[in-house]
């Protein structure tokens, strides 16, 4: 593996967007810790799917503009995370129907439908019915709702390695990336079958899907650093890519549980994961 210091132009950060220009935020200091080399494509892990260029840059732009119009964020005041909830599933209906109003804003409903359609048609050779059901049609026996977490990461920010709380969220997590690319670390928790931790570069416009083993038995997290090292498979070189602001949308199924006091603690635990470079 050779190393190169130039940016190979993979990131398409949109520095003109107000979502990505947090005026007055402190400029991060250079990374101190060891920066792992990230892969452009995911190695095989049961239930993990990663598609680069899942969304076109025009689609990314439109989604970001819709989010800006909703005024969720104020990065000057540290408001860099928003959580959206849909309505609970209707236990009378057998199948979850993404085309029915679900309490989420229009742009989010459109996005959910677009992802479903694309997975069903364009990625049908990889995404089978079982995976689509996990993502779009969970068991009607459980009470659940859609949850979307929107996160802005400025360079130097990350999220601690974690497994999304097992008793709080169902199987099936989708992570969409916009703005800057970023490395995500994955590590097995069970240390069996010779599985190795790795780092994956999430490009803008990509989708990363965690189901099954990758959701329940692997941690994922984003190291708090100001740049990433990315291995280019074609040239066998490692490129240093500076981070700019990244925006992500994480889509999950949130279980509805009666014991709300536990839920509150869980929610705090889950939202405290965001980490900053020190
Ligand atoms: O923002 C991301 O890319 C990942 C977010 C995440 O892992 C989480 O909210 O649990």
Automatic annotation (TrEMBL):
PROSITE patterns: FE2OG_OXY (PS51471). Residues 144-255 form the Fe2OG dioxygenase domain. GO terms for molecular function: 2-oxoglutarate-dependent dioxygenase activity. GO terms for biological process: DNA damage response; fatty acid metabolic process. InterPro entries: AlkB-like, AlkB-like_sf, ALKBH7-like, Oxoglu/Fe-dep_dioxygenase_dom. It comes from the Eukaryota. SUPFAM superfamilies: Clavaminate synthase-like. Residues 1-33 are annotated as: Disordered. PANTHER family: ALPHA-KETOGLUTARATE-DEPENDENT DIOXYGENASE ALKB HOMOLOG 7, MITOCHONDRIAL, SPERMATOGENESIS ASSOCIATED 11-RELATED. This is Fe2OG dioxygenase domain-containing protein.
């Amino acid at each position: 593996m050779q190393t190169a210091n130039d940016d190979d132009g993979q990131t398409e950060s949109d520095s003109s967007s107000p979502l990505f220009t947090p005026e007055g935020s402190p400029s991060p200091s250079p990374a101190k810790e060891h920066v792992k080399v990230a892969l452009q494509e995911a190695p095989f892990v049961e239930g993990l799917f990663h598609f680069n260029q899942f969304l076109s840059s025009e689609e990314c732009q439109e989604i970001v503009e819709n989010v800006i119009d909703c005024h969720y964020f104020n990065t000057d005041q540290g408001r860099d995370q928003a959580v959206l909830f849909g309505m609970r599933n209707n236990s009378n209906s057998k199948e979850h129907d993404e085309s029915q109003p679900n309490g989420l804003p229009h742009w989010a409903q459109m996005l959910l439908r677009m992802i479903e359609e694309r997975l069903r048609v364009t990625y049908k050779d990889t995404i089978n019915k079982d995976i689509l059901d996990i993502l779009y049609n969970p068991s009607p026996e459980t009470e659940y709702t859609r949850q979307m977490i929107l996160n802005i990461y400025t360079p130097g920010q990350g999220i601690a390695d974690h497994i999304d709380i097992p008793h709080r969220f169902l199987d099936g997590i989708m992570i969409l990336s916009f703005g800057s690319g970023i490395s995500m670390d994955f590590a097995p928790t069970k240390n069996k079958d010779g599985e190795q931790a790795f780092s994956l570069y999430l490009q803008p416009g990509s989708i990363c899907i965690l189901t099954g083993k990758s959701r329940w038995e692997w941690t994922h997290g984003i190291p708090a650093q100001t740049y990433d090292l990315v291995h280019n498979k074609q040239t066998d070189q490692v490129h240093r890519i500076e981070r700019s602001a990244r925006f992500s949308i994480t889509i999950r199924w949130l279980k509805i549980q009666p014991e709300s006091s536990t839920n509150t603690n869980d929610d705090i635990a889950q939202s405290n994961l965001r980490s900053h470079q020190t």
